[in-house]
Amino acid sequence: MQGLQEPAPAYLLVAMKEETDRHKQEDDLAAVYCLIQNFRLLAHEQGLGVRCTLHDWMYDRSRAATFGIQVNERIAAVLELGYAAAHPQGKPEVPEPQLRFELL
Question: For residue 76, which of 29, 21, 12, 35 has the smallest C-alpha distance?
């Protein structure tokens, strides 16, 4: 996102319960990403930028445990939060999230 500080001033780990049933797990992950999208839209209204990222270390159980992630949970995403640079009118400019849909 242009205009946001680098590195992000705040990070938010999004964790979810890890189900044994693969179909339920996929449904839960879809619900989590809907929640993330709603959060991004609400943040945009407040002049905040949110970038949703995935990292290889998220799948390392020992590393996730350092963040308090339980054995029956997993990290779904890492959200990078930041303010946009202020413009002369005083209103920060944060690019509106662009939605992209893909068929699976």
Answer: 29
- Segment 81-101 shows an average pLDDT of 61
d(CA 60, CA 52): 19
Tell me which residue range forms the domain holding 79: 10-83
- Global pTM value: 0.71
Q: Are 58 and 14 in contact (CB under 8 A)?
A: no
What's the length of the chain?
A: 104
**Residue 103: strand pairing partners:** none
Q: Is residue 101 part of a domain?
A: no
- Decide if 53 contacts 1 (C-beta within 8 A): no
